[in-house]
Design a protein that fits this description.
Blueprint lengths: L6 H6 L3 H7 L1 E3 L6 H13 L5 E3 L4 H14 L7 E4 L12 H5 L4 H17 L4 E2 L23 H16 L15 E5 L18 H8 L1 H8 L4 E4 L3 E2 L2 E2 L4 H11 L5 E2 L18 H11 L4 E2 L3 H11 L5 H17 L21 H13 L2 E5 L13 E5 L4 H4 L16 H8 L5 E5 L8 H13 L2 E7 L18 H11 L5 E6 L7 H6 L2 E4 L7 H9 L63 E9 L7 E10 L5 E11 L10 E10 L4 E9 L16 E8 L8 E7 L1
Parallel strand pairs: 1-2, 1-10, 2-3, 3-4, 5-6, 6-9, 12-13, 12-14, 14-15, 15-16
Antiparallel strand pairs: 7-8, 11-16, 17-18, 18-21, 19-20, 19-22, 22-23
Helix pairs in contact: 2-12, 6-7, 6-14, 7-9, 11-12, 14-20, 16-20
Bound molecules: alpha-D-glucopyranose.
Length: 714
Amino acid sequence: MSDTLSPENRLARLSLREKIGQLNMLSPMKPTLEDSLADIIPRIRQGEVGSILNIHGRDNITPIQKIALEESPSAIPLLFCFDVLHGYRSIVPNPLGETAAFDPDLWLRTASLAARETAQDAIALTFAPMLDVARDPRWGRMAECAGEDPFVTLLYAQAKVQGFQGTGPDWLAKDQVVAACAKHFAAYGAVRAGLDYSSVDISEQHLYEVYLPPFRAAVEAGVASIMPAFVDLGGMPMSANRHLLTTIAREQWGFDGVFISDYAAVAELVPHGMAADLVEAAGYALKAGMDIDMVADAYSRGLPEALERGLITMEDIDASVLRVLRLKHRLGLFDDPYRLGGKDAAPITISTQDRDLAREAALKAPVLLKNDTQLLPLQTEGGSILVLSALAPDDNTMIGPWNALGDPADVGLLPAALQQALPKRRIDALSLACLDTLDDTQNMQVLDAAQKADTILLWLGETPDLSGEAGSRLDPVIPAGQRALFDAVNALGKPVILMLCSGRPLISPEIIGACPTVLATWFLGIEAGPALAQLLTGQHDFTGRLPVSWPAKIGQIPIYFGDRSTGRPANPQDRFTSRYLDGPVTPLYPFGYGLSYADIKLVSVDVHHHAIAQEEVRITAHLDNGSRSEGEQTLFLFIRDIASVPTRPKLELRGFKKIKLAAQQKGSVQFSLKRADFSRDAHHDSPADAGAYQVLVGFNADPNQLRGQTITLA
Ligand code: GLC
């Protein structure tokens, strides 16, 4: 079916009800899809629905699309949407875990895989990537983002948008791509006290330096849609924030895509205390530039009266409808409304290649935090090993929060993988759900199993329901019941290797301190078991690095490397400096931290900057792998503006690179900084100030291990 009608021509033919229908997104609300469709289908026939979320599968979607095309007055295809955050069927590590790979090419490839599977299931748009910069581990949604740094999140944005949408002028109409949706615009990660949905109150400087750059990068990468955050920004709810949605994103950045509200967020302008009623809420949101109302039915029920009250104009409605029709047009929905991929309804299967990619991601995500007594790598010969998991069923946990169509049955389990990797050692397994307390029977089970083992692999941490949306925790620690489990096992005096599953740093310094070997596994995806077996046995080295600072104490929150100096930097010898009486000001583990089996050292850093040229600053880091095994190291490049008005962060990340070195091999890594890279925001909006800058290189954000020198920009 070739489509000759332009979006403009289609708009001209729509009634007011149909126009508002294009701005209305519905979702199944009843326990069964059949009951939900009983509500949705009649409204589709009336032309009151433009898009649908949370329905997947060609078998479900095609009949609904058919009704829209053949039984509604305007025959405009529906836009089917779904949350695909870290895989659709082939689940990879949760975003925070995948960020620990510090590998933009990997981030792109996993998004491309997710897009292919999603498109095959007839879905056209995903509510991803999540680009919130997160610095508060009390906030459960840290699991869904790319960590604490705007530069990393900016690169993540570029990679994910390109991975989901592809590239090139007609990128969206191609098979195997989906429209992306950058979310949640903006500064959602700065919610007060890590309390989800609560207010955000930050300086404009902070907004521009930290929270906006990733979204601007997504816009420049051509992101098809943006989802404003639930929160208010200094009293202005994002769902009605005309300054950010229209003045900044559309007029200054040139965003020509669609703003899609978060779930019922338009109606929530009433409880926010901004709108007196649903009509006002609808008027405020549309006027701000919000195009689609997700499931609140605020536009359907409120816009006609908002028009009558003069809160909005028909031009406002037409502008939003036109953007929605243009998106559908770019997606090729008018040419091929049953869209994409397999024209048949072939079920999605996970190919060997897909599983290999999930394995690659799962190998690169875990972070080795401690290995004091070299319990790792596990030796091929020796006594028995007990895999003791408190996350049961641990296969389910590994698909993490926001797991789309992830199936726990697809998850490779650790005990079996470890047995395969260590055929000469006995591998036992005990898996029990333990978040609160263990009953006597469970206690006996644990002690009985642990007493028989020579080495214990203890897997503690969060299950998916303790993480993600509405997952704020006052105490982001190893759950209480598991502390008892740890104490019981540790009291046996056997070697314990602690593995922490979570979507955030777990601030349990006592337990971490009592264990000689600790690693963060995150929610590792379908290849969790096989990947961990390779890492634990040394078949693959740990290369993951922390994308967030790991606090030493809850009281330090928020703690991140990009904070500002003070007039009184912490001095342990001087009470009257910026320090605590009862604990450290430094994190337990800094951003970028992570151990590897190979011991690669940073020998020296040369900084070449010819004041005359001023074109670029070239940095060369010299490294030496003194160990007997090959290895990989990640180097981070920071700058610091020594004196600026207003002041800038103590460290600003401006690059990271990896280097592989064979045993006993020396090597070097080159970085190059242009003048624009010295701008105060990661997106280089503001010109770089003249003056003195430190240029520093190191393995993480601990300032004491950084090397470099001061240069002067004229
Ligand atoms: C949720 C989340 C958002 C998600 C949307 C649709 O409340 O805030 O990230 O995309 O609703 O599921």
